[in-house]
Amino acid sequence: MSTPILVAVAWPYASGSRHLGHLAGAYLPADVFARYHRLAGNEVLMVSGSDVHGTPITVRADAEGISPAELSERYHREFLANWEALDISWDLFTSTGTENHHRVTQDMFLRHLENGYIDKRTTQQYYDPTAERFLPDRYIEGTCPHCGYGEARGDQCDNCGRTLDPTDLVEPRSKITGVTPVLRDTEHFYFRLSDFTEPLRAWLDTRVGWRRHVLNFARGWVDEGLQDRPITRDLDWGVEIPVPDLGPGKRIYVWYDAVIGYLSASKEWAQRRGEPEAWRHWWENPDARSYYFVGKDNIPFHAIFWPAMLLGYGGLQLPTDVPANQYVTFKGGKASASRGIGLTIGEALEVFEPDALRYALAASFPEQSDTDVTMAEIGRRINEELVATWGNLVNRVLSMLHKQHGAVPVTGERQSADTELLATVDELLARGAEHIERVELRAGLRTAMDAAQAVNVYLNATEPWALRRSDPERADTVLVTALEAIAGVRVGLAPYLPHTTRRLDPVLGEVTSWSRPEVRVGTPIDRPSPLFTKVDLAELVDDDA
Ligand SMILES: [Zn+2]
After folding, report:
1. Interacting residues of 393 by C-beta distance below 8 A, sequence separation 6+
2. pLDDT tens digit string along 323-375?
3. What distance in angstroms lies between residue 159's CA and the mean position of ligand 1's atoms?
4. Architecture of domain 374-508 in CATH?
């Protein structure tokens, strides 16, 4: 049965280059998951886009003396180049700068207002008397009240990961002028998140198969008591508020409009297809499933706020799962674009082939705990696992078949070792599917590599190179059996390694489903070139130093 599956991927702030931590945390896992489900015959809609509205963008644009639009356009183009190089298989990667997104956001705002989930309040907010303006959260820095970190931002502490209110900060200072801001009255719209405490608690209780750290975190939030949250702020960059009540100089808060991006992107995708109602298949259909691929700092937005917003809107499906990842750390520091730590995707692609990089990161996906990654570790995985176990296997079998026949030969009778190998590969393929469906993508990759290793063990036991003289027919049977097994392993690796999967199309055919395809007698086999190049470990270790 074909199931509609929405693969919703965190929207990167178009305020700086994305790093390997972001790639391993959200974009690559989502792509692996989407590619698997397409092969499994499900109807996948995978969407995301650049978040062009955050204060990280206005802060940086101010610093560079350019407009937020210019800055976000620059990084949006860079993201598109990253995705193309890595072959991330979006159905749509758009941006929050579109007219469609503004319209969908305003529609949700008006529905929430109409349903009584938005109200207007006067609050005190930090004002910079020198710059003569109210300060959005990210324009304020100070000391974290929880961990004492000295450069916590008004919205979040990068050190302990807690979300903050600017008034929580000890010794706050304006990021614009450095002066101590003063509190002044200002009027804003609030989303009544507290109204959703019991519905969210009940909904979280129905979640099955969620990662424990995600569910615990979300439940902890609900148990601490949900606070109503402002959804407008003093900024002239963002989605316009669709009612005139507040006067000029205010916009919809980015946290509110960014999560709506999943819905607006789905609608944009449908419009571009010429089937403007097609988005409903993923959003209004109770049989549809939705998976939100985000980093753990995004758990509250996707496991609490967005579900509450969807409940407040009515008629739209809540997330099936939020398989949030922990952090990838590079030499102990969190990979964070805002703090400039870690290798950017573009820098990494100058050193590693795209599939090799995909492999090494997927083998280290931080699914259950923070994971350390170094250049040397990436290089070691490529050489000792990907090249040694998979690349060399494919090259060896294709080379022998090319040299002997230049094509897939006719085989003799199968022996039990042959049928056992193929049964093992089929079983591991089925097990890999179970892992990926549970979003255990590391295990899915390991299972496929176990299948590759089984083929290596089979070849070492049967020694077709030695059989060539004594029993050439048996040698052919062994090599073709190995090639059939490789065809199955390749399916298991296809979601992880799209480029090199395609390179085997001439011999093994396009991968179109999650099952081991037949190998056709007589298919020409050209002299193979290696799927991957070994990396120079000594050079990488120097880079780490
Ligand atoms: Zn902190």
Report:
1. 452, 455, 456, 459, 486
2. 999 988 776 444 544 444 578 899 999 999 999 999 999 999 999 888 888 88
3. 5
4. Orthogonal Bundle (1.10)
